[in-house]
Amino acid sequence: MVLGDIAISNARVFPNKIGIVDAQSGVKFTWKEFNERVNRLSNAMIGHGIKKGDRVGIISENSSQCAEFQFAVAKAGAIGCPLNYRLHEKQLEGIINSAAPKLLFVQDQFARLIHDISSRLKGVEHFIGFSGQQNFPMEYESFIQPYPISEPEIDIKEDDLVMISYSSGTTGLPKGVLSTHRNRVTYCIESCLFAEKFGYDDVALVSAPFCAGVGGQVQLIAPAFVGCSVVMYVLKGNTCGEVIEREKVTVILTTKSRMMPVWDFIRTSGKKYDLSSLRKVTTAGQSHSEKELRELMEFCGVSYTAKMYGLSETVAVGTRLLPHEIEAGLRPNATEKEKKRLQSVGKPLLSTKVKIVNDQGEEVPSGELGEVLISGDAVSPGYWNNPELNKKTFKNGWLYTKDIGVFDEDGYLYLKGRKDFMIKTGGFMASPTEIEQTLLLHPGVNEAVVLGVPHEQWGEAIKAVISLKKGSSVSEKELRAHCQQYLARFQVPKYFEFAENLPKDEAGRIELKEIRKLFGEYEEE
User: Fold this and answer.
1) C-beta of residue 131 within 8 angstroms of C-beta of residue 109
2) CA–CA dist 73, 81 (Å, integer)
3) For position 509, what pLDDT does the model report?
4) Distance, CA of 349 to CA of 331 (rounded, Å)
């Protein structure tokens, strides 16, 4: 099975059912209408020279066009490149030139950003604006309308590449994570059978950004897999309750950091919303305490929730803590073991295998810490144009995640941190190396170490520990402004701390463990 089959099946089986809803514009398409638009877009891509394996880019907040894009590139045999609009223009320029998409679709609010760098984009042959008001040569509706609604005649295989999802790497350079049709269909099967258990009558809210990582992309295809109605939504605290009420949303796939602004707005604004349609909530990202799980379920008015662990390299597939396990841990008479499991991320399902290894690559027994390795049908074939990183990350059929974890005696996985100290802030991965390199560009900075510190809303916030050059005087405000010239907003440190000297070992290397003790505010194990 390939991704295009999902839209084809829904158009055949549920032709008159609402398939895609654009929460911002109010536009709605039945599955038949949606599949016809997907075919027009796919045929338009082919008509403009797109061949199997060519890349096609899009920069957009969640919209109906994002949904059409995902299925259209799949049917054309192309490789989609969603571009994270939160990145700095220099980062975007590097990513676009690396992927070399021939077509680039641009939502109106990002037109100026793309215009500013367009002369430096080497491979882009056609720019297509979402409207005709942004001075691009082509406009989306005019681009697709001349083309037929017939299915594109392209032979698509399960192991063909379908998407490149860019995320920060441990080297500080963006990684282009490849995924195949098989990878993404595997996520759909796992989600529909075990976690969300989508039904025909569900209305699913896509709250993760489509153009950042894989979250928004899989949140779209999993409910579509069984013909649900899918609401493409740009999550905002002051509108989420209204959208849930208006569209009668039944399932939310979200994270702690995304839901907190929603909770805060509803609690403080005094506004009342009818959230009674909600039946299921699935969370990913930062771990939840027992108290937070109870609050989430009470706030949403649901008795069904699940937790998941996965990476872009596994299309978000890894392990799941299933609803009955969460329910058991929240019961008043729950055993200590059942309560403890709420801190886990569950077990691997179906074809997914997970093991823990030591620094020598040897599997360790339960109860012993080590690096988490994952294999199975969801694991990416590798990174785009990065053979060296591929060799280090994908070995003998296993993905080396650099996450540190431990299995308990019953096979539940507990995550304990990152081997390389990557920072996960608000659902986005930030590379300490990239931020440190940016800080060192400032003439007054001698040394810099960047780490994550606990943050109630974002899971982790970015903190920079700075040693200045002798005689230099640099303020926190100056350093923040300096970072804003080079980095995305979510990568700019929230906190700065100055130290006369950073601790080093006998070889003169900065001791990260000591810095984390002194400045990281982490609790000791």
Assistant:
1) no
2) 10
3) 60
4) 24
Q: Which residues contact 187 (CB under 8 A, 6 or more apart)?
A: 218, 221, 222, 315, 316, 317, 378
Q: Look at residue 147 and tell me whether its pLDDT is greater than 90.
A: yes
The total number of residues written for the chain in this structure = 525
285 versus 59: the higher-pLDDT residue is 59
Q: What is the tens place of the pLDDT at every residue in 329-345?
A: 989 999 999 998 988 99
* DSSP for residue 494: S
Please give the CATH architecture assigned to the domain spanning 349-418: Roll (2.30)
Please give the average per-residue pLDDT across 23-49, as a whole number. 97
**How is the chain split into domains, by residue range?**
4-148+155-324, 349-418, 423-519
User: Model confidence at 292, in pLDDT bands (50, 70, 90)?
Assistant: low
What CATH number was assigned to the domain covering residues 4-148+155-324?
A: 3.40.50.12780
Interacting residues of 320 by C-beta distance below 8 A, sequence separation 6+: 190, 194, 195, 306, 307, 308, 309, 345, 346, 347, 349
Q: How far apart are CA 204 and CA 252, in angstroms?
A: 6
User: How sure is the predictor about 308, in pLDDT bands with cuts at 50, 70 and 90?
Assistant: confident
Tell me, letter by letter, the H, E, C secondary structure of 108-151. HHHHHHHHHHHHHCCCCCEEEECCCCCCCCEEHHHHHCCCCCCC
What is the distance between the alpha carbons of residues 225 and 210, in angstroms, rounded to a whole number?
A: 17
Higher pLDDT residue, 178 or 294? Answer: 178
Burial tier of 338 (Cβ tally within 10 Å: 0-12, 13-18, 19+): middle
The conformation of residue 152, written as its DSSP 8-state character, comes to: P
pLDDT 10s digits, 435-457: 988 998 898 998 899 999 989 88
- CA distances (Å), 498 to each of 34, 474, 479, in order? 55, 10, 11
Whether the predicted pLDDT of 300 surpasses 90:
no
Cross-sheet strand order for the sheet of 445-455: 445-455, 459-468, 495-498
Q: How far apart are CA 454 and CA 381, in angstroms?
A: 33
Enclosing H/E stretch for 265: helix 256-269
Domain 423-519 annotated CATH 3.30.300.30:
yes
